[in-house]
Design brief:
OB fold (Dihydrolipoamide Acetyltransferase, E2P); 2 domains; five-stranded antiparallel sheet; membrane; transmembrane helix; DUF1294
């Protein structure tokens, strides 16, 4: 849901301010990065249309903000990172080959495929929510899904849906979850052998 309000405070040096929503309620924090048009300097009394999201500390703030009369343009990555997609395909294919040679059980293979499909769907739903300006799935939830085995689906979703594919901090944590998940799987295979 898109909201509208008036910019009542702005600090040019720190590049943030507060919006008073038209419907009343608490003032909404907004950073300059939340504006789709970053070439324009915000001014007091500007009418702003915006969505609500959460920052890294879990606090509500404005996002996807536009000035009155402007249309929302969601920035998208121009290029798809083929590495993420290929790595996911190679990993899942490796699981299938490991199953054929009785290195792992079918339960592990079905688990990873199921978890990856579920994670892809969650990314698609979150992308749709972002476009509609609705409440979003938390980044910690997305990272948890990747950590427990859904990272192949997450990696494909990030690139094909162009969602969460540009935020460096998110990507760094995501790749850490991939390393941890693969490390745990390798350790379990070394300890339990072909019975896993």
């Amino acid at each position: 849901m898109r909201l509208k309000g008036k910019l009542i405070k702005w600090d040019n040096d720190k590049a943030f301010g507060f919006i008073a929503p038209n419907g009343g309620g608490e003032h909404v924090f907004i950073h300059k990065n939340a504006f789709s048009n970053r070439n324009r300097t915000p001014n007091i009394n500007d009418i702003i249309t915006f969505s609500i999201t959460k920052d890294k500390q879990g606090r509500y703030c404005a996002d996807l903000a536009t000035y009155s009369g402007e249309k929302l343009k969601i920035r998208q990555a121009k290029n798809i990172n083929q590495f993420s997609i290929y790595l996911s395909i190679i990993f899942l294919s490796g699981l299938v080959f490991a199953l054929l040679f009785n290195i792992i059980s079918s339960t592990v293979v079905f688990y990873y495929f199921g978890c990856s499909m579920f994670t892809y769907i969650i990314y698609a739903v979150d992308k749709a929510k972002a476009q509609r300006g609705e409440w979003r799935t938390s980044e910690s939830a997305l990272h948890t899904l990747a950590l427990i085995g859904g990272w192949p689906g997450a990696a494909v979703a990030q690139q094909t849906l162009r969602h969460k594919s540009q935020k460096k901090a998110f990507r760094s944590v995501f790749w850490l979850t991939v390393i941890i998940n693969c490390g745990v799987l390798s350790w379990l295979l070394s300890v339990n052998g072909p019975t896993l």
